[in-house]
Amino acid sequence: MRALRILGIVVVAYVLLVAGFESLLGWVQPTRGETMVITTFEANGQAHDRVVQRLESDGKLYVAANHWPRAWYHRAIANPDVQITIAGKKGDYRAVPIDGEEYARVNAEHALPVFFRILTGFPPRLLMRLDPRAA
């Protein structure tokens, strides 16, 4: 019974650690040279901005949903016409979810460190390619 109680405490502490880390990232929205802002749109046209990490592979632009909070990703799937802002320059893109060989290649090129995966609670990683839209 004592071992079960200790295990329960460890699980609760881990869940709180993950929730705290994810909340901190959502609030702080760190920006570095490899980040960009993705603007997604609800069906009613309301825009939402989210700072995300920019991934590049084979001359194409990608983004990954690496965290449990991923409303931006689901909005991009529902309405794939998004805007991307990189270094103050905004462009129109089409969000395309990827899988198979393309997913495996991009995921391998931009593998996440184990420590990061532990801090985020091992969410399934979702990737999408961002294709520029013609003006």
Distance between the termini: 65 Å
- CATH topology category name: Pnp Oxidase, Chain A
Question: What is the strand arrangement across the widest sheet?
Answer: 2-1-5-6-7-4-3
Q: What count of domains describes the coordinates? A: 1
How confident overall, as mean pLDDT? 88
* Structural class label: alpha+beta
What percent of the residues sit in helical stretches (DSSP H or I)?
25-40%
Please name the CATH architecture.
Roll
H-E order = HEEEEHEEHHE
CATH superfamily: Electron Transport, Fmn-binding Protein, Chain A
CATH class: Mainly Beta
Question: Strand count, sense and closure of the main sheet?
Answer: 7 strands, antiparallel
- Low-pLDDT regions: none
The number of helical runs is 4
| Secondary structure tally: strands | 7
Give the amount of beta strand, in percent. 25-35%
Radius of gyration, in angstroms, nearest whole number: 17 Å
Question: What is the general shape?
Answer: elongated
Report on this structure:
- The chain is an alpha+beta fold.
- The protein has one domain (2-132): Roll (Pnp Oxidase, Chain A), CATH 2.30.110.10.
- Helix content is 39%, strand content 33%.
- A hairpin with a 2-residue loop joins strand 5 (81-86) and strand 6 (89-97).
- The chain is elongated, with a radius of gyration of 17 Å.
